[in-house]
Amino acid sequence: MSETLLCLEGISYNHPDGLGLRNINLTIARGDRIAVVGGNGSGKSTLAKIISQRLTPTSGVISGICSNPENIGTVTDLRRFNSEETVVSALQAICGGDPKKTISNVNLDPEILHRRIGRLSGGESYRVALAAQLENKAPILVLDAPSSMLDARSADSLVEALANREEALLVFTADITVAIETCQTAVLLEKGQVVASGPTIEILTDSELLKQHGVDMPSALSTSWLRRRARSQKVQGVVSIQEFGEGERIAKDIAEQVAEFFSQFRSDFLEVTQRARDNFAKQEFAQHQINSQIRLLLHRQLVNQCVEIINPALENLEESKKRKLWVSARRIFAQAIAWRSDSELAETFFNSVTRRLFTLVGFDDDLEFRWFGGIALPVVDPGQGEVLTFRLRTTTEKLIQAVLEAFDIGQDWQNLQRDSANIALAIEKHLSETWEATMPVEIDVLKPVFYRNRGAYLVGRIRYLTRVSPLIIPLRATDSGVVCDAVLLTENLTSRIFGFTRSYFHVNTKEPGAIVAFIKTLIPLKPVAELYTAIGYSAHGKTSLFRAIYRHLSNSTDRFETARGIPGMVMTVFTLPSFGVVFKVIKDTFPPSKKITRAQVMDKYKMVFAHDRVGRMV
Hints:
By secondary structure, this protein is of the alpha+beta class. The protein has four domains: 4-227, P-loop containing nucleotide triphosphate hydrolases (Rossmann fold), CATH 3.40.50; 241-357, no CATH class; 387-537, no CATH class; 561-610, no CATH class. It contains 22 helices and 18 strands.
């Protein structure tokens, strides 16, 4: 059990004009990362001052081995220094040590050391002071409203600076976008009282709870929210050369760590995906948007955590030994995932970890999973695995009614007979015009419902002899029940539904390859990369796109060309005439007439990826 550093029991505080805190109980143990969140006037700053002993509570007891002020670190206000003093002199006064090393903790450029305190922005001043406090390494670090003076990039630097610190951390903030990344436990305050506490990801993504207690949940979560997605602060054993010895045992441990983090990614991904059914049935569309954005960064989050655990075992090795160890780990990992129905995603996850641990130009056959040949998608047989099959017994209307009745989407149908009749009429009209047939013989439908934004979709196909036609049934939830909004029966319309300009679907499946294979039978010209991306696996979508480009280059003779039109000031744009993709590269510098920086352009693209899902760039 972790050692208790500080214990607050029954803490209350009365301001001259009224109650500030009432009966606060809080225990802080070594390694804890606690966010204290609340709206204006909730008592956050008062509690922060009591913990850092700048205020004395009216009643209650504070105990623990860190109950002395010198054991509690707070960020120094640099305004107490002469504005003409330099940063380096202020750092020497606060923490001593090597100033360059100190500011590297918060990703500040060394040139700032020679600037005067009075010339720093509010964000720069805060980061300098934080760097000094991190260097002091007090057992408990208290941060009061740390992001209030920081822009998005500086806030990201704050998050990175706090990652993997040994100090216990208390963050007092109204900004849930910082709290959810830096802390594992959340305490919600209102009017000086604790109204809720628990895991950060549960407390701070509950929009109704936050609204009820006066905490703002952004209606459209910003890019910085996504970059600061909740980081699980699990304490796991780090692989070490001393503990396990050389060779296969270390490689086996590394492979198992990567496999464990991949399994966690899949588990977390499916857990968030499964919420879509209730969000749809209860018309909780704002919560569905939040879940969609939480899910976007799960892959990167788990890759980062995996790297943090594994890197200590590799960072001090010679490059040749490091490579040899990783080659063995790759082989063992391949054996471990061979049985999985999502092994293609596991390979992409392993490659992502590899590229974080090794500096690679191009690709490396020994370190990565590399395959540029043909891709064999799973065979999807009617009535097997993820596919339900319905056979015509009497009428098309009865067949469609049987299809709709097979799905439990959390709400009753508003008028099942009406919708079945309308869909049957549309199908028979379509078949008579295109196939000269009047009724389908069989209908195959994927078991998972496809959820996106405010809608749900049943994805299937009509089979008649050797012919196949898409069957997409969009659904809409209303207060009086679920309504079938339309029926899509052509390849062109189906392709639009799965286009890369759309948000990702939430599809609860353990066999993503089988889902892609089925959809591919409906829209055979749609690239595999776009289909994996459409069902939420954007990292593997990028892998598939890269493989497709490389495969194409191996069989084409044309060269990349500058795109037609007037060259832009921000982007270099080029194409490969025989490949239907436009490539854009952000330039390092822009002409003076452009009042925007490269970092701002990149932030805009990240915002498009994270939130503005219509018309996004890949």
